[in-house]
């Protein structure tokens, strides 16, 4: 069913658009709409589907399959990184050009319903492996390989989700791909303190990269049920100018980031996380970055 859905995109929409042409306003953007879906389709159709069918005979093979192809599954991360740009273009033409194509192709689902399938699929693989792990644990079987496979399939969807969110960040002047790995991203209540003046607490989506911390504002969801929130860039702190207070007001949910030598002087950002665990994960990662920098 999944391969058929991908086929509706590749052999339906993509082929038809090539033969009948695209609207003027879409020229130069059509490649962005589909990203690397052709690559995902070919790999599943020609290889993975057959391998998954073999795993019905022996579920032990399933874990090996996902461990072996961890690098290949990175194609989903690439797809997800492109997804926000794709959504934006599709939403402009969904009721006009793409509706005409849908009718012409006789499809039941709209294009945006089909384009979300790879994102949903990567989660389904994770759930499938977790179910097998639960079953093997109860049966007292060796779970080492399955545990490894679950780790792989927890990491890949997390990376996919991270890249989709990064792709929705607007207004950052620098190059995100030059900021190192994305380590954390969460929503915090933030109080900004500059020159002794305290601003009121504001909700901010914050991204922690190896080279920079980016603070952004969540914009309202727009354009129907498929639209995810976008983030407007507000400020950033380069790791070379970053200081950390691991705990504020003896509150395990609060810590502070210090931006030194900024144009506005030293700025202190007090961050309040939703849980102590989130705060601790951030403090641990920031400490690690700062230690690496000192070495």
TrEMBL record:
Pfam families attached to this UniProt entry: RhoGEF (PF00621), SOS1_NGEF_PH (PF22697)
Gene Ontology CC terms, in alphabetical order: cytoplasm; extrinsic component of membrane
Domain DH, first and last residues per copy: 1-163
Xref: InterPro entries: DBL_dom_sf, DH_dom, PH-like_dom_sf, PH_domain, RhoGEF_Guanine_NuclExch_SF, SOS1_NGEF_PH
Start and end residues of each PH domain: 175-291
Protein's UniProt keywords contain NADP: no
SUPFAM superfamilies listed in its UniProt record: DBL homology domain (DH-domain) (SSF48065), PH domain-like (SSF50729)
GO molecular function, one term: guanyl-nucleotide exchange factor activity
Main location: cytoplasm
Subcellular location(s) per record: Cytoplasm
Keyword set includes Cytoplasm: yes
GO BP field: axon guidance
Keywords from the UniProt entry: Cytoplasm, Guanine-nucleotide releasing factor
Protein name, entry field: DH domain-containing protein
């Amino acid at each position: 069913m999944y391969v058929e859905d991908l086929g509706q995109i590749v052999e339906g929409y993509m082929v038809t658009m090539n033969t009948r042409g695209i609207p003027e306003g879409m020229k130069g953007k059509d490649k962005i709409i589909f990203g690397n879906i052709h690559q995902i389709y070919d790999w599943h159709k020609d290889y993975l589907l057959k391998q998954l069918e073999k795993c019905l005979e022996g579920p032990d093979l399933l874990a090996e399959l996902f461990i072996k192809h961890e690098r290949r599954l990175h194609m989903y991360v690439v797809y997800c990184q492109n997804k926000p740009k794709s959504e934006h273009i599709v939403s402009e033409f969904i009721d006009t050009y793409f509706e005409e194509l849908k009718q012409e192709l006789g499809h039941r689902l709209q294009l945006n319903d089909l384009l979300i399938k790879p994102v949903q699929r990567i989660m389904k693989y994770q759930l499938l492996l977790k179910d097998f792990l639960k079953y093997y644990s109860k049966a007292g079987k060796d779970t080492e390989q399955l545990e490894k496979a679950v780790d792989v399939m927890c990491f890949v969807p997390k990376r996919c989700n991270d890249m989709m969110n990064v792709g929705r960040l607007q207004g950052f002047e620098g190059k995100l791909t030059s900021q190192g790995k994305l380590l954390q991203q969460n929503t915090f209540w933030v109080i900004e303190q500059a020159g002794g003046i305290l601003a009121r607490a504001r909700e901010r989506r914050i991204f922690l990269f190896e080279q920079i911390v980016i603070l952004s504002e969540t914009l309202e969801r727009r354009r129907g049920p498929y639209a995810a929130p976008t983030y407007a860039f507000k400020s950033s702190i380069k790791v070379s100018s970053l200081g950390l207070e691991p705990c504020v007001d003896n509150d395990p949910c609060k810590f502070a980031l210090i931006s030194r030598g900024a144009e506005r002087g030293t700025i202190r950002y007090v961050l309040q996380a939703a849980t102590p665990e989130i705060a601790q994960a951030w403090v641990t990662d920031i400490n690690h970055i700062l230690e690496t920098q000192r070495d």
